[in-house]
Amino acid sequence: MSQPIYASINTNSRLKMDRSSHRNQTGSDSMKTRCSRAAPMCLVLLCFLLLTAVIVLSVFIYTNNKNCAKDRRQLVTNISNLTGAKDELTNLLMERDQLIKQLQIFGQEAVWFYYQSSFYYLSNETKSWTESRRCCKDRGADLIIVNNKQEQDFIMKITGNNEFWIGLTDSDEEGNWKWVDGSILTSGFWASSGSITEPNGRETENCAVTHLKKHPELKGWLDVACDDAHQWICEKSILPVTI
What we know:
Elements: H1 2-106, E1 111-115, E2 118-122, H2 129-138, E3 142-143, H3 149-159, E4 164-169, E5 178-179, E6 192-193, E7 196-197, E8 207-209, E9 222-224, E10 231-237
Parallel strand pairs: 4-10
Antiparallel strand pairs: 1-2, 2-10, 3-10, 4-5, 4-8, 6-7, 8-9
């Protein structure tokens, strides 16, 4: 009776072992399957991260190169501007030296003044407007062009109560006043007092003087006949002329 019992026990033990082995084998196969599926996913994720890093790095390099190119262009522009400014300053200094030599030559016959990058020559004799301008040109200058109120005040101060020709005329067209450089007068400092307003529109009065001694109440420009005899003011700028 005991022998079948042992056989039954052994049989049951083998069944349990077989089931356990089958479960272990099944678990191992499942794990292998999961691992085989996870590997491609990890590879894809790694490739995605690598691609992202490459894109970010490329954008950074492109932006950095673009900024560097912009900085280089700006640097070249700044260097060019500095070179141009240096050349302009050199030319101004040369023109100044030349003009000072001219002033030393002509300084004994009249008075010269310096103001706002220009030299001014006040004659000590009287001539017509045309002859006065010719005298200015002989000295490498021209009749004065008054550009602003500061210059007008300066001229009124150095001329005192005497009248001086300025480089303003409407000889070409009545009422169309132009400076000697061809520019049109847009605003000026014409004299006015009570009922007197300059220019008065007389066709025979086509040139301008600073003011007249016989009209001390008039502080500003007056139009007079170009053949009248007055002193004159020449102007020579040390700034280069831009066209």
